[in-house]
Amino acid sequence: MINDLNQLLDNPDFLAQGWQALFPDKQSLNLEIGTGYGHFLAWLAPRHPDQAFIGLDIVSKVISRAQRRLDQAGADNALLAKLDAQLTLNELVAPSTLDHLYILFPDPWPKNIRRRSLREDTLPLFASRLKAGGKFLFVSDDPDYARDARELLDASPLFQATDFPAIEVRTKYEQKWLAQDKTITRLAYIRPTLPQYPDTGSWPSYPHNFKVQLPDWSAAKNVELFSRFVPALRSYADLTMKLHACYRASFSQTLRLKLILARQGSLAHHTWIELSDDGQLAPAAGNSVPFLQQREALLQAVADWLVEIQSL
Ligand SMILES: C[S@@+](CC[C@H](N)C(=O)[O-])C[C@H]1O[C@@H](n2cnc3c(N)ncnc32)[C@H](O)[C@@H]1O
Fold it and tell me: Is residue 92 a contact partner of residue 83, using CB atoms and an 8 Å limit?
């Protein structure tokens, strides 16, 4: 079970190979968003021992219960991860690599539909992560969410409707809603071959350790930077970054800086970076920058910013 993002981003094998590093002999990758108590994966994964399954949820207690269910089912080709769906799809799943994407009984957020996982602006993300021919399955008991989902998917050139496969298991929420005689809507779509996305993709491979050297640096510059530091916000590409705090280590001039990063529509990510007294800037031990495609350029942008602050 993956309990936090650092477990993945501190793993050099994951950075080099993506999920393949964790499922070395599996060819197909399938992802369930909001896996809940794990009923679906505990049923599905043992039926496809040659494939890999990832289940995402954001609630620790829920995911621990799901893990027990997977263990009892012998589903050792399924891995649960306590990770946000949008961050995972954006950063940890390479384009055109999923065979299936499943969302079963997502929270409908009736008072704030912007928080739903399936929205007009998330359809391109879902489609881009599926291989051509990959399938997206969506099931909901909520009539408004089901209607909106069907309308969006039917109107989207990124998806083509197909038959819903036979699924013999009832998830926790399905059991609950069936007991209340609710109507269940089951939608299945294929991601066709599209000019904007490759048919299949692969993990781009990222280096494990990365750092940026600040020019002409010395311990005295760390002291100045520390004395001038005030929290500040900046934009970098599609991210907002905040230098939130700066601490000095007691026995050296190394600075520890708290960096908060957020992308529109995603949860903010907090991380610590360290600036050594000879000007090397790198994520602090046990910390990560999840925006994998941008993290080196992002660290360079922070380095430039620190040089500016120091020279004020
Ligand atoms: C209504 S439950 C459905 C659970 C399960 N699919 C079922 O049918 O029993 C929705 C689940 O989605 C999870 N969830 C909500 N937001 C999420 C997110 N951003 N990323 C991953 N999981 C999320 C919740 O914690 C919850 O377990």
Answer: yes
- Alpha carbon nearest to ligand 1 atom 27, residue: 36
pTM of the model: 0.91
222 neighbors 37 (Cβ within 8 angstroms): no
Domains assigned to the chain: 5-190 (3.40.50.150), 212-310 (no CATH)
Note the pLDDT tens digit of each residue in 195-242: 999 999 999 999 888 899 999 999 999 999 999 999 999 999 999 999
* CA nearest neighbour of 245 among 280, 220, 270: 270
For 19, phi and psi rounded to 5 degrees? -65, -25
Cα 85 to averaged position of ligand 1 atoms, centre (Å): 9
CA 117–ligand 1 middle distance (angstroms): 10
Pocket of ligand 1, candidates 54, 58, 93: which has the most ligand atoms within 8 Å of its Cβ, to mutate? 58
Shortest-distance atom of ligand 1 to CA 56: 21
Going by C-alpha positions, the residue among 297, 255, 259, 258 that lies closest to residue 277 is 255
